[in-house]
Amino acid sequence: MTLFTPPRRTLAWNSPLLRALWLLMALAAGVLLVKLTPLQGLLVVGLSLVLVTTLIEPLVGLGVALFLGLLRAYLQTEVPQVPAQIGQAFFALALGAWLAQGLARRDLRITRSPLLLPLALFTGAALLSLWDAVGLTTFGLPELLKWVQIFLLVLFISDHLTRRRLPWLLGILIGLGVFQALVGIWQFGLRGEGPDHFAILNDSFYRAYGTFEQPNPYAGYLGLAASLSVGLLAVMVQGRLLDWYRRQTAHRPRPVQSPARPSATAPVRGASIFQIALLGAAPLIIIAALGMSWSRGAWVGFAAAALAMTIALPRRATWGVLLVIALIVGGIGLYAAGLLPSTITARLTGFAEYVRFEDVRGGGINDANYSVVERFAHWQAALEMLRHNLWTGVGFGTYEPAYARFALINWPYALGHAHNYYLTVAAETGVIGLAAYALLWVVIFWQTWQVTRRSHGLARGTAVGLLGVWTHLSVHHLLDNLYVNNVHLLIGVMLGMLAFLLQLTSKGKESR
Question: How far is the first Cα of the chain from the last one, in angstroms, to the nearest whole number?
């Protein structure tokens, strides 16, 4: 299978097929507009435009799918008239457009990637765990479908993406993060009201929760978006500084080589000041909203992501490690000197006195320790599930229906997961599934690190950002589950981007 081919033709705006489709849609829209209200008519026209543009460029439908997918909890709660999973319809549309283009060209291929085998192994282990699961159709199969969609997205993005499309896809992902961040900033202090149980700082502000309806998964998503944007920005600034340094140290003009087809990993000039300023606003907005979410898990996850990206940023990892050590020592020094904001340090450390790695069934419960003890109770229940079926667990995605058999006294209600994704995977898929999941992420981290060493320019910025994304996801999963509210679609897109970057940096390959 050929990994790289010349740019392939897609449907043109004036192709006979699209002309016929335009005509049919115009006739249908004309009939509908007579009977619909102006708002409904505008919606019909907008959906028609999305449909046609998706047939030409599937990334349009994918962008709409990601945007609407993140609205799932909001639509389900606030706008029940609209199907909560409407984003899935646009995902199917984008995937169908990609398949249709490949069939029309008679050139539909599966691109080889080192990510596909571990993804298939974990999906297979998840399927194996469902052989006698409780709640198979309601809980198990929908959760399994998420990983099937991730697998399909890796195939789609790695095949369809090109160097020209990469900036557009990055713009979609970062734009979604900025939109969600702005919603959270409005909820935090500009709206003036909010749910009582989200009130913080003497009830003067409210925890930001975006369209997720819950602060913690919302903050987890923001951490992913912030990591990607920070990684891109850091590499762009680094390139600009290197350009300046080369100009300052150059003693004589150097010949400029301009090959007809530059290597995909050839060094490029640093970004312009305008590009840096434009991109620099995005992480500031997203990080501000991340702070306003008041989520400890997301704060710790993003801090870990920042350290991982710091290690990867220099060409020599040794310098990155030394810089990380300096940052950690500096942070400890600021904390010891009492120079960090007291509200932040109290939020990060206030739970420590309630942490007890012991059986929580006999412990007391009060308002101060409730959330911590609740997590330990669900962790303990997950371990009981694993003990019950060591090899294949109780069934992938079925933690909630199985919980009643393993619930602790005083904690009869399931939270949907164990508030620790690794324990959830162990409980649901057993040792086999947990080993497959661990293997998957070892491969992902290793391949991402390899791209950060071999790439330049935008490709390297994307890889450094993805390294931060995986780190944040892995750390935050110690306290939560981020594969909710269609965030798994973004994970699939980012894994597809990694597969594409692996193609670009393959030895002896050239870009499309």
Answer: 15
Q: Largest Cα–Cα distance in the chain?
A: 78
Contact between 287 and 223 (Cβ < 8 Å): no
Alpha-carbon 2 to chain mean position: 29
- Per residue in 328-364, pLDDT (tens digit) is 889 888 878 877 777 777 777 755 544 555 566 656 6
Q: How far apart are CA 332 and CA 352, in angstroms?
A: 17
Q: How confident is the model at residue 6 (pLDDT cuts 50, 70, 90)?
A: very low
Measured CA to CA, the distance from residue 56 to residue 236 in angstroms comes to 31
pLDDT at position 341: 77
Q: For residue 140, which of 393, 394, 397, 392 has the smallest C-alpha distance?
A: 397
β partners of residue 200 = 205
Coil vs helix vs strand at 200: strand
Structure tokens belonging to residue 67: 């945007």
- At 17-34, the pLDDT tens digits run 555 655 665 566 565 556
Check if the beta carbon of residue 293 is closer than 8 Å to that of residue 209. Answer: yes
How many residues are there in the chain?
Answer: 512
Task: Answer left, alpha or beta for residue 340, where phi above 0 means left and psi between -120 and 50 means alpha.
Answer: beta
